[in-house]
Every structure is written in structure tokens, then in C-alpha cells.
Amino acid sequence: KMFIGGLNWDTTDEGLRNYFAQFGKVDACTIMRDPDGRSRGFAFLTFDDAEAVSAVVAKDHHILDGKAIDPKRAIPREEHLRNTRYFVGGLSPVTTADSMRAFFSAFGKVVDATVMVDRESGRSKGFGFVTFEDAGNSASFVGKLGLVLDDKEVRVLRSSRVSAV
């Protein structure tokens, strides 16, 4: 299964299928759409033969309907989050999702940063989660001492389970 990002808003399922047919027999392709039918700019595609995925990934540039697209092997959401989501403890009461995102962006592309807050008071619970696009630099922050965010030392651990946020 593949994730295809960066689609032209006018790309059709048929056009997508036709483009990827050059790599192998396309089993299914679905452009994700808003309830009103407008493309969300990405799709999922499966081939009959897994080797076709390797052929797609091996090619440097893909252009469809005049736009560079970004095909990647699809990673199941649960597995992706488990591998790229980290628990951040010891947060300062002034830490926000934005300040957390800014701090952790030094370690890679941050796709989500969340500070957990008490529903009643709206105050920080002192912990949160940060999710990266990939887990490549985790050794530089997981379990390391001396990480200071908003004048407070924080600790980062692998998130052992995906919790509802």
C-alpha cells in the first residue's frame, strides 16, 4: 500500500491509476475527498505485486497533472505513531504546543505537539506528546538529561502506547 501526497486538486482516480500502471497492476486507488467531493490532495494506492511499490519508490521524481507528487510506502497509523510519538514529562506551566513544537523542531520535522491540560482548570498537567515525521534522530533526545524547554528540564520517553488526545 502506498500513500500519494501532493496531488493536483484536479487529479482523478482514473488519472492516478493510469499513471501508476506503468509500475505494475494497480489493485485499488482512492483519492481522499472532503464530504463535498473536493480532493484533499492525497490518495492511497495498492498494487497486485509488492515489487511495484519498490519500483515507484526507486524513481526520484513523479509528476502527475503538472504537479510533483510524493509517493511513499504507507505505514499503518498505529505503527507510525508508535515509532514517532514521544512522551514529554516535566513541562513548565507556561509551555504551549507552539513552544514545544519550536523546541523539538531542532531534532526533526514535528508533525504534532500536544500539552495535556486539565479539563476543569485549563492548566497544564505538566506533560505532553511530540510526534515527528520519522524517528531518525530519537537517540539525540530520548532519555537524555539536560533538555531544557521554557527554563525547565524535561524528560522524553518513547510513547509505549498511543493514547487518545
TrEMBL record:
Q: Which UniProt keywords apply?
A: Nucleus, Repeat, RNA-binding
Which locations, inside or outside the cell, does it occupy?
A: Nucleus
Q: Which residues form the signal peptide?
A: none
Q: Which PANTHER family match?
A: RNA-BINDING (RRM/RBD/RNP MOTIFS) FAMILY PROTEIN (PTHR48033), RNA-BINDING PROTEIN SQUID (PTHR48033:SF10)
One of the entry's Gene Ontology molecular-function terms is:
RNA binding
What's this protein's name? RRM domain-containing protein
Q: Which domain of life is it from?
A: Eukaryota
According to its UniProt entry, the protein's GO biological process terms are: regulation of gene expression
Please tell me the species this chain comes from. Answer: Coniophora puteana (strain RWD-64-598)
| Principal place of residence | nucleus
SUPFAM superfamilies, sorted: RNA-binding domain, RBD
